[in-house]
Amino acid sequence: MQIGVHPLRAIVLTGLTPSVLKWLESLDGTRELERVLREAVLAGLDETRARSLLDQLAAQGALHDASAGPGCLREIALAERDRMKPDLDALDLGSTAPDGMYILFERRRRSRVRVYGAGRIGAQVVAQLAAAGVGNIRVLDPGQAKPADISPGGLTWAEVGMSREAGAVAVARRLISGGLPPVDPDEFDQATLTGASPPPTPGIRPPRPATPPARTSTPPARTGTPPARTGTPPARTGTPPAQPPRQVTGGQPPRPGTGGQPPRPAASARPTRSAAEARPYKRTAGGQPPRTAVNPRAPRSGADEQPARSGAEAQPYRWAAEGRSYRPTVNVQTGGTYLGDRSDRPDLVILAPVAPFDRVLVNELLELNIPHLLVAAFEGHGTVGPLVLPGRTACLHCIDLTHRDHDPHWGLVTALLGGYPPGEIACDAALSSAVAGTVVGHALAFLDGREPVVTNGTMEVTPEWRWRRRSWKRHPQCRCMRNNPCSLTMDMAPDHD
Q1: What is the dihedral angle through the alpha carbons of 185, 190, 191, 195, rounded to the nearest 10 degrees?
Q2: I need a surface site. Which of 29, 206, 244, 304 has the fewest CB within 10 A?
Q3: What is the pLDDT of residue 296?
């Protein structure tokens, strides 16, 4: 019996009798442990061996505890749970505890991440973190979004002209909105959580009720009748004299019944309309045009108007068709408070510079003991890392000092550039997507409690698409091991007063 498919994850059980194999296949989570052990005895497996087998399956992550509650998944709408099913399955495989998936997901929802930079890489990082269920994300990049910032999975043409941070937030909110128009999480209140109608969103009208309200009054009946015509028009006597046919120029033959007259010029002709165009609404008995069904999920303003879809496409979930709303799974917002006031301390800061990187922020992160992860892509090369754990691992200043040891002019080069990394230079779509997915994977590993491989190291990709890991050590001349880079410790000899 084999459980799993991948060679590095599959579990193979050998030497099983048909009765024991049938007992294992019957583990569907509908019976208590005592009953399962009694059935194992009936299958020819004593209780001690049955418990040992179950413990081994649980240790390999192949056994789930069906009695474990869904936890915070209970607060997520059905559409969002369906969207996140692959992510939840991956979390389940990443934990060997029977209820580990729920614990890891709750940990992600409590996590706080800041992303500095929302260009080709940073916008994708924000969207992927939101899709993975990271609970609180702050995006900081006041620069204006340009067409060069558009990338698959990141900013789109709809965000061009906005600030990059606002565009990245808009992309993430569309992804986690459950098929409804994105709404700012701050606009929701307790009534929204109970299924009440959400507050009106600018530019979007609330859906009309399924059935129009019944009319309480009827129009008054007409009591009078129009007077009958008493006269008749006089009959025409005689026939008009026949006119000789006119010579038609222009290559068009005369129409029959027109006396050989040529057609009127196009300037004086009025275009004829079909019945549907001439009367867009068919009047009903009550004198009002019939109401047409409106797709509640389609935009209804100006240029964004889209053709109506069928009922199966427009209403995949009942709650969306009823106009209900819910608090978004992820709180994605622009900007943030000053890190020094410690009011909104993030668990991780991701640095994705679009322009030359200023190290002033790095000094603040080191002083405040905040973990941070660097990602950059320029001139066909991509770099993810290092993940800096202040006081424990090599920092970005250690890397600068190492570069200086190998290149005496390194300081002059970075000064001329205005910072290092220099920003997103020659960063194509494939490179930006590759490094964005890589940095999100390492960030999620850190948030889930695992130690990424980019601690004291970086993952680098070359233009030939070869990945390599490069190790870094703490530089002996760097003060990154101290909480305060300017602090000094003085010792006095014991034989002095």
Answers
A1: 70
A2: 244
A3: 37
Contact assessment for residue 112 and residue 344, using Cβ atoms and an 8 Å cutoff: yes
pLDDT given at position 121: 97
pTM of the model: 0.69
3-state secondary structure (DSSP) of residue 359: coil
What gap in Å lies between CA 396 and CA 474, rounded to an integer? 10
H/E element, 334: strand 331-334
Per-residue pLDDT, 318:
39
DSSP states of 152-184: TTSB-GGGTTSBHHHHHHHHHHHHTSTTSPP--
Tokens 């001349």 map to which residue?
A: 477
- In DSSP terms, 468 is beta-bridged to 460
C-alpha dihedral, 356 to 357 to 359 to 364, nearest 10°: 140
Domain parsing of the chain, residue ranges: 2-59, 111-176+330-497, 182-199+311-327
Number of Cβ within a 10 Å radius of residue 481: 11
Q: Is the dihedral of CA 305, 311, 314, 318 positive or negative?
A: positive
- 210 CA to centre of own chain: 31
How is domain 111-176+330-497 classified at the CATH fold level?
Answer: Rossmann fold (3.40.50)
Picking from 416, 365, 420, 417, the residue whose alpha carbon sits closest to that of residue 393 is 365
Are 133 and 84 in contact by the 8 Å Cβ rule? The answer is yes
Listed residue (321, 327, 332, 331) closest to 192, CA to CA: 327
- Tell me, what's the pLDDT at 482? 56
* Cα–Cα distance for residue pair 144/166, rounded to 1 Å: 9
pLDDT of residue 242: 53
Residue 14 CB neighbours (<10 A)? 6
Task: Tell me which residues of the chain have a pLDDT lower than 50.
Answer: 187-207, 209-213, 216-217, 224, 237, 239, 248-254, 256-260, 265-326, 483-491, 493, 496-497
